[in-house]
From TrEMBL:
Organism: Streptomyces antibioticus
Single Gene Ontology BP annotation: thiamine biosynthetic process
Recorded superkingdom: Bacteria
Pfam family name, one: Phos_pyr_kin
Protein name in the entry: Phosphomethylpyrimidine kinase
Alphabetic keyword roster: ATP-binding, Kinase, Nucleotide-binding, Thiamine biosynthesis, Transferase
Pathway: Cofactor biosynthesis; thiamine diphosphate biosynthesis; 4-amino-2-methyl-5-diphosphomethylpyrimidine from 5-amino-1-(5-phospho-D-ribosyl)imidazole: step 3/3
Upper lineage: Bacteria, Bacillati, Actinomycetota, Actinomycetes, Kitasatosporales
């Protein structure tokens, strides 16, 4: 049976991030993607013009509908918006026998807030302890831990601060630093440094969602966490290289780039 992956995240009407990016990624990587919509955004290449979270009961019903019938081999979380949604989703994934990739979405690519400040403590105490892999970027690390990363040398300290909240693995994404895009994956005992050349392409909308869902897809295929993260990093690097202009602002990465390899 085809591996099944569930994204629990917000909808991006522009199609570059959120559940749209997740489902495209899951398809490209040979898995069956399913979705639990937590919020609806009015969003385009210029930013987020509006966001409306769904009721907790609607989120819980979507999750149970999928998991109880179809089943999942991995779960990925994204935009959860409020403390109530964070806590409900944390309980759901903690009770599901599948690895969970938690992308603790705090702000959009354009700097728009996607998580209420009042929800941060719930992310720390409820969601991160349920995560197999947590994938914060540097802004999210600062939000959650107070650790500000200014150079590659600080990534280890940031990872340690995230791991204190209980995820099995932390992937600290250093893409906002100068130089090559260097990430650190660690469980506190072993470290994996992943580096990719910095690409001259401004169209990077959806990279965080895409990376987290790619990790989930590889985990659903039975790969180890280090192998899944390494493969996901390579996939996202290719997607960024193929990113394209859309609208008047920041365009999306190209989730289908790997499907086209060898077919041109």
């Amino acid at each position: 049976m085809k591996p099944r992956v569930l994204t629990v995240a917000g909808s991006d009407s522009g199609g570059g991030a959120g559940i749209q990016a997740d489902l495209k990624t899951m398809l490209a990587l040979g898995t069956h993607g399913m979705s639990v919509v937590t919020a609806v955004t009015a969003q385009n290449s210029l930013g987020v013009q509006g966001a409306w979270e769904l009721p907790v009961d609607a989120v819980r019903a979507q999750y149970r509908s999928v998991v109880d019938d179809i089943g999942v081999q991995a779960v990925k979380t994204g935009m959860l918006a409020s403390a109530e949604l964070v806590e409900a989703v944390a309980d759901l994934i903690a009770g599901t026998d599948a690895p969970a990739v938690v992308d603790p979405v705090g702000v959009s690519k354009h700097g728009d807030a996607l998580l209420a400040a009042s929800a941060l403590d719930s992310v720390r105490t409820r969601l991160l302890p349920a995560a197999t892999v947590a994938t914060p970027n540097l802004d999210e690390v600062a939000q959650l831990t107070g650790v500000h990363v200014a150079s590659r040398d600080h990534l280890r300290r940031a990872a340690g601060a995230v791991l204190e909240f209980g995820p099995r693995w932390a992937l600290i994404k250093g893409g906002h630093l100068s130089g090559d895009a260097v990430d650190l994956l660690t469980d506190g005992t072993e470290e994996h440094w992943l580096s990719a050349p910095r690409l001259d392409n401004r169209h990077t909308h959806g990279t965080g969602c895409t990376l987290a869902s790619a990790i989930a897809a590889h985990l659903a295929r039975g790969e180890s966490v280090p192998a899944a993260v390494t493969a996901a990093k390579a996939y996202v690097t290719g997607a960024i290289a193929a990113g394209f202009s859309l609208g008047a602002g920041i365009g999306p990465v190209d989730h289908a780039w790997e499907l086209r390899r060898g077919t041109a």
